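Work Package 3 (structural annotation) set out to generate three-dimensional models for the target panel prioritized at the project kickoff. During this period the team completed the workflow that converts sequence records into discrete structure tokens, so that structures can be stored uniformly alongside our sequence database. As a representative example, we reproduce one entry of 379 residues exactly as it appears in the project archive.
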Amino acid sequence: MTTNALSSLWAEPRATDAPDRVSRDWVLVGVLMVTALLEGVLRDDVAWRPFATIVAVGLAPVLLWRRTHPLACVMVAFGTVMALGLASLLGGAPSVGLDTMIYLLVLVYALVRWGSGREIVIGLAVVAVAAGIGTVADYTGPADVIGGFAVLAAAADGAAFRYRAESWRRALDQSRSEERVGLARELHDMVAHHVSAIAVQAQAGRATAGQRPEAALEALAVIEGEASRTLAEMRAMVRVLRDGAPAEYAPQPGVADLVSLARRAPVPVVDVELPDDLDELPPRIDAAVYRLAQEALTNAFRHARNASRVEIRVVGGAGRLRLRVTDDGQIDPARSVNHGFGLLGMTERVQLLGGTLRAGPAPEGGWTVDAELPTKVRR
């Protein structure tokens, strides 16, 4: 298990979206350089004062590259700390360095927060060696233990912020993926419905062209309008799915718009019945009922042979909303065997909202789609 964890850490890529340098980074570096300079000048017990001051001031600008080059910054800074520790051992001077250099802990945080797995392993090894040399060179008892905990705390903070950012990114990616699946479902429902309506109008126009030429012209006008709307909606959705362009949101059709599904085609007749006292529905439920009825009607147009009537009924009460779509056509055997993407999409839509869906042949003939949804969406 330990080997797998180390292998996973070693293969971990760099954190995404590392920010560029901003104005506060320059302010931080400026403040640290001034602080280090003042400590080097005013403090009495500084060993190798000019050298220690120059090192503390000179390392501060390394912080500017801590996000984009975390390992290089750690190597430069803690490599210098190692050199100071070795110089202290060889020269007999205790604690070569300024207290201001505690800012190097920011580099440890940045290494774990932004670096790749192998950079983290190599960088922390360098930090550990530098800390070990410093402890041997100038052991001060509990203070060194506290310093070790400070290094661990900086690394732990970096890991915690990295994990939180990664969890947020994954949740956002999942949300976007679900949104794209939803858009694909909407695209299927919209195209299938409009194309089925076009087919019905074309059949009606062909049937009446001989006796009533004006009816055929009306059917062509309806076909033209349906085709134009289909192309416009399809282009908008495809642009979002393909290019990630922002969607141009418009008010979603709902239960009140089900009446518009009653087409002018003489056969089948679409009869819509809605309750008069229907309470205000949550937008997701309202839109889902419309899309379910639209898809059920599309399937009736495509598969219900010799259907003369399609009934759409919506009944509400007791915190539930029921949609029932029936037709009186003859059952297409292929419809019973292969439900296709339409019924699959309907089932997914209902289940996401905590409802139930039943679809199949009715005992009295024809096909029935029966959906039941809660009027309060689960969060």
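The chain is about 60% helix and 10% strand.
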